[in-house]
Amino acid sequence: PEAVVLACSDARAPVEIIFDQGLGDVFVIRTAGEITDLSVLASLEFAVDGLGVSLVIVLGHESCGAVAAAKNALDGGDLPGGFQRVLIEKVTPSLLAARKDGETEIDGFERRHVREIVNHIIDRSPEISSRLETGEVGVVGMRYRLEDGRAETVVTHGVSENPLT
Predict the structure, then answer these.
(1) CA 153 – CA 142 distance, rounded (Å)
(2) 48, 127 Cβ separation under 8 angstroms
(3) CA 150, CA 141: separation in Å to the nearest integer?
(4) In DSSP terms, which residues pair with 77 in a beta bridge?
(5) Which residues, 6+ apart, have CB-to-CB distance to 105 below 8 Å?
(6) Cβ-count burial of 125 within 10 angstroms (0-12 exposed, 13-18 middle, 19+ buried)?
(7) What tens-digit pLDDT sequence spans the chain (165 residues)?
(8) Is the pTM of the predicted complex or chain greater than 0.90?
(9) 112: part of which helix (H) or strand (E)?
């Protein structure tokens, strides 16, 4: 694969179609709200180390339910039950950081969440961080816009642009 993509599990954001890639051209990891845990970080490192992937993409999207749920929890205290609560716990720090910087709109929260996940991956994965420092890997954060079918670049580390778009 050319890239590893951590994307939201929302069916409206199909990674291979968004990047016009065939099966096997990208290594895709999908979680609601593109949140990370140890298994996601391990999968990202496997793609980079085991498969030689040189591009890590975090792909958020417009109208993300996880971001909206975290915003609703912050605004009114509405918390889902069961393990869905983990989504709120994982996304809320991104929204708090965005609010601290004066952001009030949902699209800004979505972009900030992508940035925070990118930073989280770089901070928590020594494998990706060291390869980023040596120029072997680039990391890109993007947000897919449902309204026009385009993926906008939110943040880049180690690359000037995303070669898949």
Answers:
(1) 4
(2) yes
(3) 14
(4) none
(5) none
(6) buried
(7) 989 999 999 999 999 999 999 988 999 999 999 999 999 999 999 999 999 999 999 999 999 999 999 999 999 887 888 888 999 999 999 999 999 999 999 999 999 999 999 999 999 999 999 999 999 999 999 999 999 999 999 999 988 655 565
(8) yes
(9) helix 106-124
